[in-house]
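Fold these two proteins, one after the other.
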Amino acid sequence: MSPFAPAAESLRVGLFPNVTHAHALVAKSFSREGRGWFEERVGLPIEWFVFNAGPSAMEAIFARSIDFTYVGPSPAVNAYARANGRDIRVVAGAMRGGEALVVRGDTITKVEDFRDKTIATPQLGNTQDVECRAWLINNGIRVTLVGGDARVLPTANPDILLLFQQGKLDAAWTVEPWVSRLLDEAGGRIFLEPESTVTTVLAAREDFLTKNPEVARKLVAAHQELTRWIRDHPEEAQRRVRDELSALTRKEISLALIQQAWTRLRFDDTISAEPFQTFLDQARLVGFLRAKIDLSKIVWTPP
């Protein structure tokens, strides 16, 4: 760190109330108990900020309201492109899997059946939104921001569940625990489940990394240690995720729901630039990005 750069006094970390953000939920659970996982290993207080989906978290990064965030890869790529390769860096992987395209009842049995249907995603430009649009286009179903052969409707996850139950949605591409809730509470059925796709990474503000590289290294090491702990203590991790989601949503979440969602998760803290090329290609395909982007610096390399 430059001798003229102010030292970090706390870390502001973003997360979403999704099981695919299990790292953050477990760490936040420790924080609530007063024995924070990151606090003890980094040596700084942690301030947690909750977002509905990735684009909102990226806006907070640009506004310098947060320093790190767990986020999907598509919003990270979009933000990196928007900033011309600056401002955003990915410091670690977190999760693969934990997402699915869920259809209502037996109305959709093949790809062609998605024509003239309404498919919900968590937020415009988030990972599942981009994946959904790209998948439809690649299967010959034209979609635009306002229409096309099928309608993609960005909708907050709690509203997706309600609209699904009311029969106002034909399908939804979303993440856990909402996938399991759509199956259990709304008569949903999994049509497509990309098991190995990167769904969550840990991203950071570039200027924070530049000014506080040692703090960042400690946080990444603590995140990697947490990955191992979650793998070794699945029952306690599931309980902590359940408790934290219940606290965040102010609604009791069943442990059985978390256990069901857990079967679709693949904890993986490794990261490289290669997976982001797929998401960049998808963003271009659906029209969210136009310019050519060099992804060689999207993954942070500690000095």
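Now the second one:
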Amino acid sequence: MPTSELMLPRYEAVRISEDGQRMYQTPEGKYYSVTTILSGSKDLSGITEWRESVGEKEADRILKVACARGDATHLNVENWLLKGEEPKLNLLTRPYWKSIRPFLDQIKKPLLLEGAVWHKDGYAGTLDCLATLHEFGDEPILLDWKSSDRPKKKDRLYDYSLQCAAYVKAANYVYSNLGLNIRQAKIVIAIADDTVQVETLDEDALNQLYTHFKARMTRFTK
């Protein structure tokens, strides 16, 4: 059932776990999550080498801090968009909020926040934000929030781009009865004590990336 007063009805899909894998119970059945598909189909050799180089304890600490700052950034952005609240900051969150805050002024109207979406191709997930931006009038644009200690190179954004393509296709599917047609996505990365990094994906890129995502789904299921 819809659970929000935003421009689009917000849906929640129950998250479940089967064989240690995250899935969503959607109105059309049980689907693996986008993040589960991507993490389960990627080459992990680089991550393994990194963990070995820094040590397991330090690797776990770094990942824990990264998750905490990411969760805090998402929550701060959501509260600002819904309530106009400036967050109470601490040493962990201040550098990232300072980076992403100017971008939020570009948002004309939030349409959907943290909404569950799914697709008949066999996956589901929760998108960060769907909004209109002043620069693009009433065009709906998918926004995906990330955080990092330093700017990311293009090749490090590949899985993020696949994630966006999957969410765009799923949102257009779930809200097809309302005529939703997302043709652009932006990966918005809060960089500690630096200017926000924004990677834009147009319709052609999203369509091409979706074919790559489907290939990753095939690899994951096999």
